[in-house]
Amino acid sequence: MSSSSDIDLPLLRDRLVSIALQAGVMITSATPTTTSSGTKKNTADLVTETDQAVEAYISKELKTLYPTFSFMGEETYKPGMQLGPEPTFIVDPIDGTTNFVHRHPYISISLGFAVNRVPVVGVVYNPFTGKLYTGVKGRGSYVSTIRDGKTHGEEIRLPLKGSEALTGLDSCIVIIEWGSDRSGSNWKVKCDTWARLGQSKDEGGAMVHSARALGSAALNMCAVAEGTLDVYWEGGCWAWDVCAGWVILTEAGGIVVDGNPGSWEVDVDHRIYLAVRGAKEGQKELVEEFWSYVEGEMVYPH
Ligand code: IPD
């Protein structure tokens, strides 16, 4: 069995950063053109030629640099593929494809790396804003700004806001996402839970400060890692949406638990997540409070 201590993780991170910056050039110079089918499972699940070209570029580079490691990418994933214990790159070439198609600049290249199914390196890069997030397990996570292919200004350790105490959902901004599954019981759980989160306390709700649906799971994880947004809850996303951000968040003191009430530890391919920012106190209480507002249980096959 491989161990992450056998691998030079900072070097691997630096290589992922170089690949992300080059992929960023491909994305910012492209015109979003949907593929011949344009969609995957439905009209809200989009794929462009750029998603496919960027994934092909990333997997080719990684195969050359790390020929024995496995690769799992959104655009080449086939139903039934499972994440194994071997060192594996977990990649979303464009996280936020819907934003990309609409020319809304909240997208990222999400490059994660897991060993024994545990995320250990994460690089998330938004080529439109130049924001680059990196994390290596045990070595912290950082944000910097890239201009003209180079780091501009200092690299800042996360979280940005320190680790202010969490005092309850009524002082949090919560990120929710519609995702592309819009029917059945999963959709009902989401809608009913969103309603309760926002609703006034007099009527039994949590009355969160506000909710955001920004369209890139990886950047959502990074916003929670920064501490500029407090909580992210989603069911239905995949390991490639969260693997890189997972390292960045947990290295900033944040946690990822089950999006359904109950489990404090979940795997990266669990598909139902609740991410909470780092805090000197109140994290556990906030998770329990959130779970008390989840209306039912989401079910997504792995
Ligand atoms: C999607 C985004 C979105 C999330 C979906 C993901 P994609 O990834 O991360 O924010 O709500 O669950 O599938 O399709 O743009 O790579």
Automatic annotation (TrEMBL):
Coiled-coil segments on the chain, per record: none
Record InterPro entries: IMPase (IPR033942), Inositol_monoP_metal-BS (IPR020583), Inositol_monophosphatase-like (IPR000760), Inositol_monophosphatase_CS (IPR020550)
Reactions it catalyzes: a myo-inositol phosphate + H2O = myo-inositol + phosphate
Pathway where it operates: Polyol metabolism; myo-inositol biosynthesis; myo-inositol from D-glucose 6-phosphate: step 2/2
Pfam families xref list: Inositol_P
Cofactor(s) needed: Mg(2+)
GO molecular function: inositol monophosphate 1-phosphatase activity; metal ion binding
CDD domains xrefs: IMPase
Binding site for Mg(2+): E74, D92, I94, D95, D241
Enzyme nomenclature, EC number: 3.1.3.25
Top class in the EC scheme: hydrolase
Keywords assigned by UniProt, alphabetized: Hydrolase, Magnesium, Metal-binding
GO BP annotation list: inositol metabolic process; phosphatidylinositol phosphate biosynthetic process; signal transduction
Sequence similarity: Belongs to the inositol monophosphatase superfamily.
Entry protein name: Inositol-1-monophosphatase
The species this protein was found in: Exophiala viscosa
